[in-house]
Specification:
The chain is mainly alpha-helical and 94 residues long. Helix content is 36%, strand content 0%. It has helices at 23-32, 47-56, 80-93.
Length: 94
């Protein structure tokens, strides 16, 4: 790959990240950026795929690992958001 004097890639170079997409897929993806409905809407993940995602985000690989939740230390008396969320959840469970 060619670089200019500042170390940036020269226009026209292609970087292959290991995923080769068909022309149809490229067209659908580009259309989704200009307001045409999303190209992969409604596709379901397989059980194997969802299991792999779950395993890949366990433990310290999870972005929330070691961080406190937004509502840590808040009560329904001290914060209206906690109160409202509690009401919504209790309605949904009934």
């Amino acid at each position: 790959m060619n670089h200019d004097k500042h170390g940036r890639f020269v226009k026209g170079n292609k970087i292959n990240l290991g995923v080769v997409k068909s022309k149809k897929t490229k067209q659908l993806m580009s259309e989704s950026h200009i307001g045409i409905p999303v190209w992969n809407k409604g596709k379901k993940q397989t059980k194997k795929h969802s299991d792999n995602i779950s395993k890949s985000l366990m433990g310290n690989k999870n972005p929330m690992y070691g961080k406190r939740p937004w509502n840590y230390g808040l009560t329904k008396k001290s914060d209206k958001r906690v109160l409202n969320n509690g009401k919504k959840i209790s309605k949904a469970k009934k």
